[in-house]
Amino acid sequence: MEEVDHLADERSKAQFDVEAMKIVWLVHNNNSMSRNELLDLLRAILRFAKITERQQEASMLRFYVDEPAFTDLHWGMFIPAIKGQGTEQQQQKWLALAYKMQIIGCYAQTELGHGSNVQGLETTATFDPKYDEFIINSPTLTSSKWWPEGLVADIGMKFGNGAYNTMDNDVLRFDHVSIPRDQMLMRVSQVTRQQLYVRQTVVADVSCALSWAVCIATRYSAVQRQFGSQDGGLETQVIDYKTQQNRLFPLVNSAYDYSELPELFAVYVPACTYEGDNVVLLLQVARFLMKTVSQLGSGKQPVGTTAYMGRVKHLLQCCSDIQQAEDWLKPTAILEAFEARVARMFVACARNISKMPSQEEGFAELSSDLV
């Protein structure tokens, strides 16, 4: 049977310029292009937009010469931070200025003495309720913010002659700087005038995952055939059923219009290593579980997602009452099986840690078990 490229056939039906879209996508996502490649792509985009030769040169010169230090963190982190974490009022106040680059932002977490060790950071933010301000202070040399890209001046030559020497990476220290409380981005967390800290949990990257899902579903629908054949020929492509189009196409549109995939890529890919390897997060959870285990004998009952640990004696002794396959359809049976397995794992781990000379040595030696 002759192989048919169904996706190519579907792309040929597009009512927009697919090649032009690829160019725009590449500019947003490919940070490894050479200067000439980038300029060639920019020329193609500007030609597509029917901009004159003089405007092309001016636009490219401004993009490549005037703004290289600000393109990455200003557009990739500062603006998305305001959009994702700022209240509506804060967005109205700052976004218009940021888009026009009348205010410029960067990201200053790393400290000279601490790298990505967030718990070891020394810069302090002390709330002053009298003046409704945060006092930001860098008390030591090692608390200096080191390497923030996009500030004025520069720390000097960096290792190698590559990309980092083409941008400014500065050093920053705060000397009891007063910042009004309402300058804190307060959409997902805030400090009240009464010194209460309030935080909401927001699953910010769900839209990205859903965008992947609808892309997969659309591609599969273009390849899969089902029903519709009356004379023994090929069955109908699933994508050609109007009901399938009604379900998928609005979602595809939403994914491109609202998910801002290039921006999500720039913002969330680094999230894998902001605080080091993700193993660090697993170890933090493990420490919390070990602390909860240590408090079981005190009469303090676990709450929330660890409430089941209050039944640890039962879970260590219980046996599943599953008798036949259909019993696994009971959510309570599955839940108890997981609870029993987890309880036995964390009790065994806690016992092994208790046999070590110190708790810290136990955590170091048994880190694989904790993960």
Automatic annotation (TrEMBL):
Sequence ranges assigned to domain Acyl-CoA oxidase C-alpha1 in this UniProt record: 196-257, 258-290
Classification via Pfam families: ACOX_C_alpha1 (PF22924), Acyl-CoA_ox_N (PF14749)
GO BP term (any one): long-chain fatty acid metabolic process
GO CC list: peroxisome
Membrane-spanning parts: none
Organism whose genome encodes this protein: Kingdonia uniflora
GO terms of molecular function: acyl-CoA oxidase activity; FAD binding; fatty acid binding
Domain of life assignment: Eukaryota
Name of this chain's protein: Uncharacterized protein
Record-annotated Acyl-coenzyme A oxidase N-terminal domain positions: 28-104
Coiled-coil ranges per UniProt: none
